[in-house]
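Below is one protein, fold included:
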Amino acid sequence: GGGGHSAVVLRKGLILLAGDNRKGQLGHPPEELHLSSSFVALSSNFAPPVRSAALGEDYCLLLTRQGELYGLGSNDRGQLGADPMGGCAHVPRRV
């Protein structure tokens, strides 16, 4: 898992996340969901089936079955591969 969050990828490609969401790393706006002790699905209309997930301290990277990479959570050190550095994303950004 990440620094304070965990993820589970189900056979159908659905990803569920739990834990710290202060940077949006669970895929929900932090002002709506700060912490979750239950696993939740992404709040966006993210449709591609997920093959695997890699979790950092306050971010999450998703690899789809089509080989596309998405990131969500903190980008303060460029960990989402998105310019400009800084900010957070609660909706997965394609890398």
Notes: The chain has a mean pLDDT of 93. The radius of gyration is 12 Å. Residues 71 and 80 are 5 Å apart (CA to CA). The beta strands are 5-9, 15-20, 35-41, 50-55, 59-64, 69-74, 88-94.
